[in-house]
From TrEMBL:
Localization (cell): Membrane
Reaction catalysed by this enzyme: L-alanyl-L-lysine(out) = L-alanyl-L-lysine(in); L-histidyl-L-alpha-amino acid(out) = L-histidyl-L-alpha-amino acid(in); L-lysyl-glycine(out) = L-lysyl-glycine(in); L-alpha-aminoacyl-L-histidine(out) = L-alpha-aminoacyl-L-histidine(in)
Annotated TM spans: 12-31, 43-62, 95-114, 134-154, 161-183, 189-207, 219-239, 259-280
Record-level GO cellular component terms: membrane
Protein name per UniProt: Lysosomal dipeptide transporter MFSD1
Principal location class: membrane
Function comment: Lysosomal dipeptide uniporter that selectively exports lysine, arginine or histidine-containing dipeptides with a net positive charge from the lysosome lumen into the cytosol. Could play a role in a specific type of protein O-glycosylation indirectly regulating macrophages migration and tissue invasion. Also essential for liver homeostasis.
Record flagged with keyword Cell membrane: no
Listed Basic and acidic residues bias regions: 296-308
GO MF, any single term: transmembrane transporter activity
Keyword Membrane set for record: yes
Lineage: Eukaryota, Metazoa, Chordata, Craniata, Vertebrata
Domain of life: Eukaryota
Amino acid sequence: MRIAMQKHVSYYRFVVLFFNCMLTFGSYFCFDIPSVLQDQFQGVRTILCVLGFCSAVTVSILDKVGMKQLGLDGAIQEESKKVRVQDIRRLPLRYWLLVLTIMFFYNGVFPFVADASKFIQDKYAGYDQRTASYIAGAVYDSSLVLSAVVGILIDYVGLRGILAVLCAILTLPVFALLAFTLVPPLVSTLWLGVTYSFAAASMWPSIPLVVPQATIGTAMGLATSVQMIGIGLSNLLVGRILGTKSSESKIPLWRWQQMMIFMLANTIACIVASVILNIVDKKQGSTLNKMTKRRPPVESESRDEADRTPILNDEDDRNSIN
């Protein structure tokens, strides 16, 4: 009976995971598709966005049903009632360091991919717009191939904090090659796709490990907001660095070098934030760097006391004004 229940839970989780992946498929497709293919896939984009909306509704229903079957709906609702907007400041230091790590890493990825096609055409000879767009898209192509395998590997090994540092360090040569060498750009975009895959699989899933369970939604949403603010500001700065409003005119190479140096600066900031994150995490029990699959079952289910403690205790709740 217990084995059958475990199989049912495992099946249910994969169904939720499938619809959760489809939830953002349309928006990411619209965001990342090369510009030369926009007209060809115009109808597909609309269909995928509608599919994403339907998936969001499905995930919401499955989440409520699953929490009810596990008997956790009441406990989560009770803890969630204690969370207030002003309690964001009580989120642990590890969370904010993780958010900064994510923001700085993505500051180097998304603004680069947005302008990579133009950069390749301006710097390297023999690349038309279509070819340059395909090379720029190799970042996501390699991520498409590797993400599932990387996720399984990280679930087995753990060491998410260390992987965050390694991803940032190994991203440095990407922008250095693009800025100061004539190495074929496909090498750099594929390389960036590999580090991007490991970063996405190690950084984002670390958030639920360092915040109380009742605040996971708030923490994820806040992290996304900070990430988007960072990307938006980075795009503005990149626009100022490139100094042109026309996509047809060729941008001087020295401006592209300055842009790559800016990408390098963000990556260095990511390294600093991730190193400090690992130091703080080690002092607080090394939650991020535990070997997940090699731990005893009892230990794998335990979390740091600080992570399990609600943001508001009972005394604070009694004194709060509803």
